[in-house]
Amino acid sequence: MKAETNKYSLWFLAWPIFVELLLQLLLGAVDTLMVSRVSDDAVAVVGLANQIFQAVMILFMTVASGAGILIAQKIGARQQESARTVGIMAVTISGLIGAILSVILYLEAVPLARLFQLEERLIPMAHTYISIVGSGMVLTALTATLSTAIRNTGNTKGPMIVAIGMNVIHVVLNYAWINGALGFPQLGLTGVAISTLVSRLLATCMLLYMFVSIFERKIRWRDLGVFNRKLFSEIIRIGWPLGINMSSWVLSQLAIYSFLATMGAAALAARTYMNTLESICFMLGYSIALSSQIQIAHLFGSGQTQAAYKAGYRGTWIGLGLVGCNSILLLIIGKSFLGFFSSDNVIIELALSCLVLTAILQPGRMINMGFGNALNAIGDTRFNMVISLFSMWGVAAGLSYVLGLHYGWGLAGIYVAMMCDEYLRGILVAIRWRRKKYLRIAEEPKKGIEAVGPTPKVSYTSHP
Questions:
Q1: Contact present, 303 and 74 (Cβ < 8 Å)
Q2: CB 67 within 8 A of CB 149
Q3: Element of type H or E holding 316
Q4: pLDDT digits (tens, 9 = 90+) for 368-427
Q5: Which residue from 25, 78, 353, 371 puts its CA 20 to 30 A from 181's CA?
Q6: What residue segments make up the domains of the chain, in order of their start?
Q7: Phi, psi at residue 5, to the nearest 5°?
Q8: Of 199, 271, 198, which Cα lies nearest the Cα of 47?
């Protein structure tokens, strides 16, 4: 009992996620720096390509996200076999979806690049990068789903270790192929793409090794064909609104990137550099939000609704304090940070013009993420879907066009629009969590059995 208490405490869950995000960020920053040495055009291409990849990832992340929450709930309810079945189905289905996407991205790289109004001179570079990295989307699907399943069993250290190894290998191979070092040929952006494939392949192998032993009963090859219709329905019930929510965000971001593309490669590159800088500010809060979701799902599954309710507030307030401090740090290091990535004064000035807006944006994002993830953890995913469809398109994308293009505010107008979107959704999910609708529904069946006696509970704190 004590071991389980520690396993699902907020601190125990959060610190490996934080370390994983921190090192991914540092290595990702190095990766961006390396790509910038190829050219600022290469950075713009990679930034747009990553938005395309995020868009297609929705198809398998719908299954992975729903399965992750359900795994934590089933383990909380002491239903280990059901959790195991959910994990297996998620991996096999996501892998099949990823394989189909790999073929599509390899064959349709150029039409996709043109769809988002990329400058014609950048199309050959985009074709190279999208076709190579996109052909490995099956590996992306497997790593994402395996990491989610393993993490929601309470083992956040395993995915952390794999992510660190994957990113170190990726940076080393980037260096080798970009510069023609360590006996490798000099391939530029093509080398970056190949490096991405190799590192993801190795990560997939390591995560599969962990996955087969993560549940009480070891997973064997013959188990990969298992399918339980009832459990799959539960995955979809939780997952499809998450998928709509994620697709709404990614597609609205793609629309915003298409607005940026009409502003030129400098605006695209500035936004890509700012994405890296924003990650520094938000990674602590994001790690708290992710770990809080796992904890709340486990508490909810075990019937501890009041503890789950309090955990939603605790995780959000802790994350908000951390993000507030980091917003101040963002303002301090912003100019120096951007100078490492580009010597183009136009790009740097564009990014710096949005620095204060970016710092103001982050607390709103934390409120939205904290309470939004809490709602997802208890299965209240449709509410997030509804407000996302309205706010992301009507506010984030709509205002981006009006302010950024129509009124000529440029990149600053886009940041104002994103800020309004995050704060609006943050307020709405906070109100929803306070009303406890799903928690009250879950408490109803317990009223008829309270006379039998209390159920032993596990106590959760923010530290083990």
A1: no
A2: yes
A3: helix 305-341
A4: 999 999 999 998 889 999 999 999 999 999 999 999 888 888 888 899 999 999 999 999
A5: 25
A6: 11-446
A7: -60, -45
A8: 271
